[in-house]
Amino acid sequence: AQSVSQHNHHVILSEAASLELGCNYSYGGTVNLFWYVQYPGQHLQLLLKYFSGDPLVKGIKGFEAEFIKSKFSFNLRKPSVQWSDTAEYFCAVNAGSSGGYQKVTFGTGTKLQVIP
Amino acid sequence: DTGVSQNPRHKITKRGQNVTFRCDPISEHNRLYWYRQTLGQGPEFLTYFQNEAQLEKSRLLSDRFSAERPKGSFSTLEIQRTEQGDSAMYLCASSPWRGDEAFFGQGTRLTVV
Hints:
The structure holds two protein chains of two kinds.
Chain A: E1 3-5, E2 10-14, E3 19-21, E4 24-26, E5 31-38, E6 45-50, E7 56-58, E8 64-68, E9 73-78, E10 87-95, E11 105-106, E12 110-115
Parallel strand pairs in A: 2-12
Antiparallel strand pairs in A: 1-4, 3-9, 5-6, 5-10, 7-8, 8-9, 10-11, 10-12
Chain B: E1 5-7, E2 10-13, E3 19-24, E4 31-37, E5 44-50, E6 53-57, E7 65-68, E8 75-79, E9 88-95, E10 103-104, E11 108-112
Parallel strand pairs in B: 2-11
Antiparallel strand pairs in B: 1-3, 3-8, 4-5, 4-9, 5-6, 7-8, 9-10, 9-11
């Protein structure tokens, strides 16, 4: 069975600081990987996804993530955070298939607080 | 609003009562998913449908839980004889068949007292 670990539960940064949130997954086969964001009071939104191809994936709002297969990792990065990035971030994995989005396993989330 | 719609947004019920939640997916999305999210945890997969067929069901889904999608459009999730441990946010999402992204609703927050 697939699983996801997010090591940072709560991160506090000042505006303009760089961000890296860790995500490791456990699954022996091909995977599809996602980062979702949940702003306070809002629904989950997709930040970026990796299915195949270039392991460096660019998403919305200046976020990017790098898939490192040998490390089973998919860390999320942003060079310079803004106060509006304050949210909870979830890494998720889907056992890869040609059948599209199916059962997705989420990590426990990382709460990011950006201080102005 | 053409996003995923969930009703009600909040539900408070007494232990032992039955509750039913509704999810309206994005129009023409074949797949529909139910997740449960408790405090401090990420969403946990419960079940998913392709059209009206329920294709997978998590072991988390006890016999008290049942989900339906009778006409392949909206879905309902029913919890019978609710327990305090059922208190959680119930999330619904939808995606096109073979789509690579699911869109989430705002969820139904259930509190069992």
